[in-house]
Amino acid sequence: MIRTRLILFIVWSIILAGSLVSVQGAELQQITLLLDWFPNADHVPIYTAKEKGIFAKHGLEIELVPPTDPADPIKLVAAGKFPLAVSYQPSVTIARAAGLPIKSIGVLVDHPLNTISFLEKSEIEVPSDLRGKKIGYTVAPLDVILFETIAQKAGLVKDDYELISIGFNISPSLLSGSVDAVIGAFWNYEINELLLEGVDANYFPLEEHGVPDYYELVFITNDKYLLENREIIREFVLAIKEAIKMTKEHPYEALTSYFTANPDVRKDLDLLAFAATLPMFAKSQQQSKEKWEEFTSFGLQNKLIEKKIKATDLFDNVLVGGGN
Hints:
By secondary structure, the protein is an alpha/beta fold. The protein folds into two domains: 2-111 and 214-313, D-Maltodextrin-Binding Protein, domain 2 (3-Layer(aba) Sandwich); 114-208, 3-Layer(aba) Sandwich (D-Maltodextrin-Binding Protein, domain 2). It has helices at residues 2-15, 44-51, 54-57, 72-78, 89-97, 142-153, 170-176, 190-196, 223-228, 230-249, 251-261, 267-277, 289-301, and strands at residues 29-34, 60-65, 84-87, 102-109, 114-119, 134-137, 162-165, 181-186, 201-205, 217-222. α6 links the parallel β6 and β7 (162-165). The longest helix has 20 residues, at 230-249.
């Protein structure tokens, strides 16, 4: 598989990579960033920004907090409980259409990582094979709605499958047989986790089954915080931009920063996941209006959202003049 060969090549590049510099701090603005998930390789640029002093260089002291439930971040930011969080473009679209006052202000991962994943021994080959199966999901309502959309396109109705909330327990749920497939499993992470367990798995990439390209991971804030703290948000996005650049240019040092901050993570898994994710980290912090419009149109057409919403209400390019 081309993707597997690319991952192995990048793993060796990371192992052989070079060195990095540190930065000095000053009086810092303290902010909490709520992660989308427990710390993992998708977050390497964030931890690089923290450990290498990039946030401090931009006047920020960022506390990184994993969520108790993967569905929490967008709700907590909308309610003003946290100023910033990592979320997903589809979640932002669904939440904003439902009236929650949140916007994307930056990008972490440019393209979908989400999949419908299953063990190879399940003999699932096409989405219609999910008829009669138990389907685990991680983030509601996002994963539920996306699965139902793909299932409908495959000719399935809701009575053809059972949806089960599994939270963070993706691989254990598949390995135990408590579910037959999972939506919310990332091809860069859970597929590699299962591989390390000696279990062959396969997956349906969402973007190959009717879902348009979208930003997998974005940074969000609420309207009030953005209005009152635009310069702080701007410095945060500048720091993320710099950290992603550093991560791509010095992957070994970036991954080391992540491991230093998270000594208990499974390093063999995160190495593979990081290698897979490295080409997917954001190339620009100028979000594409067309990309947001395409997903919004898809969402309206497939009843992910119930009303039309302007793409420019969903994101703010804070590094470009006055934004949108």
